[in-house]
Write a structure and sequence with these properties.
Layout (H helix, E strand, L loop, with lengths): L8 H10 L10 H10 L8 E6 L4 H14 L4 E4 L11 E3 L2 E2 L2 H15 L6 H15 L4 E5 L16 E4 L7 H4 L3 H8 L8 E4 L6 H9 L3 E3 L6 E3 L2 E4 L2 E4 L7 H14 L5 H9 L8 E5 L2 E6 L4 H11 L4 E5 L7 H8 L3 E7 L9 H6 L7 E3 L2 H11 L5 E4 L2 H12 L1
Parallel strand pairs: 1-5, 1-6, 2-5, 6-7, 7-8, 13-17, 14-15, 14-17, 15-16
Antiparallel strand pairs: 2-3, 3-4, 9-10, 10-11, 12-13
Keywords: ATP-binding, Folate biosynthesis, Ligase, Magnesium, Metal-binding, Nucleotide-binding
Family: Belongs to the folylpolyglutamate synthase family.
EC number: 6.3.2.12, 6.3.2.17
Length: 406
């Protein structure tokens, strides 16, 4: 029996998690059938940005949402996963939607789906689309959860697609062939519509699929990119100095926004991008006089970005990771900036114990911890003059920030 419209969001989330064997089931047939019942048909047409990629999706969608809001447009932003509260996944005009509105959406989907089976991610994606549709928002910013071609988000046609980066992640679903992964990501492209590429280092399989779909490709470094301290795109350029999100992502978002035809001055774009703060992305916290840096990155590509951001700075590294991630690759990417490496157990589904994490790599770990609180306290005491980096998972960063903020 499903919860009622008067039940708590937590009850609904537990319910949709329990009725399907997996959180994610790739394929569009089932979710499309339900969407046909629930969403408007040709009544209005929002401008849709769809963003796929291995890393950088969250910050790129944040930038697109901020630009649309700066332009004064009613904007929906769907992203995943969340850091603290589920509501972070579904935002209207930059603000998380209330629990009650999400419950109303989930209730509508539950009644409308009939006997069609939906995964957790399909429910939550439909909830976002239903809320955006009900509010008749002018702009929809949609982040692909996994892959692209068969992801639930792809039931909506993108006016402008963005593909940020391509790396190895979610191997159980996408495999380890970089060209096949590129093919899957390119599935969000539409004929004669633009696709903005967020990296100059993308596999040929992606370019081939973009061409086969007759999409219009805008390559990073040509029409948009970063040069010295300047973010540029076809519509102009701005100073990158005070922009706290990755500048490659900022450039891609500006190019995508320009191609949508929505008008915004460069001063307004500068203001919108400088106002973005992304919790858990190279976030620095001063805790009892000690510098702690957290980042949600969890694959080798993200690890290389983190190491680049840290530069010559050597840090004490504390990692907690999920079982389906490339632990060895992530650890190796962080090795150049690590003074010491430590592991902490992650007490969530698919979470590795600290001992299991260490066993996944041949890198010498200094110590293991059962809890985040214990790890932070001891590492700060033993190496008080060395910054502490904490990462490996959204769950790890959530645990760390929750403890630090207390």
């Amino acid at each position: 029996m499903h919860p009622s419209i008067n039940d708590a969001l937590e009850d609904w989330l537990a319910y949709i998690e329990s009725i399907h064997p997996s959180e994610i089931e790739l394929g569009l047939q089932r979710v499309s059938a339900v969407a046909q019942k629930l969403l408007s048909k040709n009544e209005y047409k929002p401008t849709v940005f769809t963003v796929a990629g291995t890393n950088g999706k969250g910050t790129t969608t944040a930038a697109l949402s901020a630009l649309a809001c700066e332009a004064g447009l009613e904007t929906g932003w769907y992203s995943s996963p969340h850091l603290f509260e589920f509501n972070e996944r579904i935002r209207i005009n930059g603000k998380p939607v209330s629990n009650q509105r999400i419950v109303e959406a989930l209730y509508a989907i539950e009644i409308g789906r009939g006997d069609i089976s939906l995964s957790y991610f399909e429910y939550t994606t439909l909830a976002a689309l239903w809320l955006f549709d009900q509010a008749k928002l002018k702009v929809w910013v949609l982040e692909v959860g996994l892959g692209g071609r068969l992801d639930a988000v792809n039931i909506v046609d993108a006016d402008v697609a963005v593909i940020t980066t391509i790396g190895i992640d979610h191997e159980a679903f996408l495999g380890s062939d970089i060209n096949v992964i590129g093919y899957e990501k390119a599935g969000i492209c539409r004929p004669e519509k633009p696709v903005v590429l967020g990296s100059a280092n993308l596999p040929q399989g992606l370019h081939d699929e973009v061409a086969s779909r007759s999409a219009i490709e805008y390559r990073f470094g040509d029409q948009h990119g970063v040069k010295e301290a300047i973010v540029f795109w076809q519509g102009g350029q701005i100073d990158a100095g005070q922009i706290r999100i990755p500048h490659d992502n900022a450039a891609s978002a500006c190019q995508a926004f320009y191609l949508s035809g929505i008008q915004l001055s460069t001063d307004a774009i500068q203001h919108a991008l400088e106002g973005i703060q992304m919790p858990g992305r190279m976030q620095k916290v001063n805790w009892q006089g000690h510098e702690i840096i957290v980042d949600v990155g969890h694959n080798p590509h993200a690890g290389a970005y983190i190491a680049k951001q840290l530069g010559s700075q050597k840090v004490n590294v504390l990692l907690g990771m999920l079982a389906d991630k490339d632990v060895h690759g992530f650890v190796q990417a962080l090795a150049p900036v690590s003074k010491q490496m430590h592991a902490v157990s992650l007490a969530v589904p698919r979470g590795l114990s600290a001992q299991e994490l260490v066993a996944r790599t041949d890198y010498p770990f200094e110590s293991t911890f059962d809890s985040m609180a214990q790890a932070i306290r001891e590492l700060i005491q033993t190496m008080p003059d060395t910054p502490l980096f904490i990462g490996g998972s959204f769950y790890t960063v959530c645990d760390a920030l929750t403890f630090l903020e207390k």
